[in-house]
Design brief:
The chain is elongated, with a radius of gyration of 28 Å. The longest helix is centred in the N-terminal third of the chain and has 19 residues. By secondary structure, the chain is of the alpha+beta class. It contains ten helices and 21 strands. A four-stranded antiparallel sheet has the order 3-4-5-6. The protein has a four-stranded antiparallel sheet with strand order 13-21-16-17, with no helix packed on it. The chain is 28% helix and 38% strand. It starts with a helix and ends with a strand. It folds into two domains: 207 residues, no CATH class; 190 residues, no CATH class.
């Protein structure tokens, strides 16, 4: 993903420079003015025909255009989304020509442009959190979908509350080509101007992923996650068809995601099966009931639980709405009917309910179901499985039941 994103940003500024006319000084002034105007207006047609050397400066001073970059040029949803963001950001740019050196064909520009560092950092936080959640979901591919990427871009943009700017003097070096002045090449300074500093921000992330780098860019998050995992308390009860877990966040802050790997162990001590459940946005001090279902025919004697927490710089990618979900339930002809209503002011991405059935005071059976994409004040009827004997496929009598909200969250 990082390679894909990095390549797309490079594609957006591969060519720059413009025609000149009149005296050399006026021609250079006009070339620089037209180039900066095209950059501010994000006029790609004008920009693309204005550079002499199709490339970006490498450290040793030679231009580089990789095949990976070329392959991403056309019809890419991510490129379009980033281009829209850059277009909006560049419209806020201001500049003025401060000096012209006709001998060196150099124009100095005083620029003030949007610094997208916070936006890019937020984008990667959201992307990694979503990818991490997908990896532990049975219904999701770990690869981010186009729809998820679009949502992440919107969320990253919304997370940046105030515009931040870079003020810098840059030198544009031109060359004369067929009677016109074109930009000699795009150096890193101008790459940052034309991409609202996305180039520099992506490069920093790229370097953070370099295998040779000793520093871990997410080291602080990893330390928090290790601390949070120690502060997660749980109680477990074995049912006929799985394990009911009471999970409590004893950590000092909200946890983006809690992944629960449950191993079901039989009478012989052999592991019968392993399953994973996920909790989204578990707030500090919050208690959540979770059901890990076992689909086998053997009797569960005990279980083991492995907990992994996901914290991305203390920022939740999703917002917890468990307290905003209301349920009404009744036993139907062949299932427990649970009406789920979204009382939040936001669309719910997902709401998951869990019912535990009792024989006397003993919990014997669990059942779960999901509701997706619930708009404010909308309701959906879910049908949960009633207790049954897996071996004989016969219903099991129960005396009572209780319904819990396992998860309910929206985009933040």
């Amino acid at each position: 993903m990082k390679k894909r994103m990095f390549g797309l940003i490079i594609v957006t500024f591969l060519s720059l420079g413009l025609w000149g006319c009149g005296s050399k000084e006026k021609a250079l002034n006009d070339a620089a003015e037209n180039l900066m105007k095209a950059t501010k207006e994000w006029d790609l047609d004008e920009i693309k025909k204005s550079v002499a050397d199709m490339g970006v400066m490498k450290d040793e001073g030679e231009p580089e255009v990789t095949e990976d970059v070329k392959e991403e040029e056309d019809n890419d949803i991510y490129g379009e989304a980033f281009a829209d963001y850059i277009k909006e950001s560049n419209s806020k740019m201001t500049y003025e020509i401060s000096d012209i050196d006709v001998d060196e064909l150099t124009v100095q520009i005083k620029c003030k442009y949007i610094d997208s560092t916070e936006f890019i950092q937020e984008f990667f936080k959201q992307a990694f959190t979503q990818a991490f959640a997908n990896a532990f979901s049975e219904d999701q591919d770990s690869e981010l979908s186009d729809e998820e990427m679009e949502k992440i871009l919107r969320m990253a943009k919304a997370a940046v509350k105030d515009d931040k700017y870079v003020e810098k003097n840059i030198d544009l070096v031109f060359v004369e080509e067929k009677g016109a002045y074109k930009l000699k090449k795009v150096d890193e300074d101008f790459a940052n101007v034309i991409t609202a500093n996305c180039y520099g921000a992506f490069k920093a992330v790229e370097e953070g992923f370099n295998e040779d780098e000793e520093a871990d860019p997410f080291e602080k998050d990893h330390k928090k996650e290790a601390e949070a995992e120690k502060d997660i308390a749980y109680k477990g009860t074995i049912l006929n068809n799985g394990v009911m877990l009471e999970i409590t966040n004893g950590y000092t802050q909200s946890i983006d995601g809690v992944n629960l790997e449950v191993s079901f162990i039989g009478k012989s001590g052999k592991t019968l099966d392993v399953t994973t459940e996920h909790i989204t946005c578990l707030e500090s001090g919050e208690k959540r009931m979770v059901f890990a279902q076992y689909y086998g025919d053997n009797e569960i004697q005990e279980f083991e639980l492995n907990i992994n927490c996901s914290i991305v710089s203390g920022q939740d990618s999703m917002e917890n709405h468990v307290s905003d979900v209301v349920v009404k339930d009744n036993v139907g002809d062949d299932g427990l009917i649970v009406k789920v209503t979204n009382n939040a002011k936001k669309d719910l991405s997902c709401a998951r309910v869990f019912a535990v059935f009792y024989k006397g005071d003993k919990p014997i059976f669990g059942s779960t179901e999901y509701a997706y994409d619930l708009e404010p004040n909308d309701s959906e009827n879910l049908k949960l499985t009633l207790p049954y004997d897996r071996e004989n496929l016969e219903n099991i009598e129960f005396d009572s039941y209780r319904v819990y909200i396992m998860d309910a969250y929206s985009e933040k």
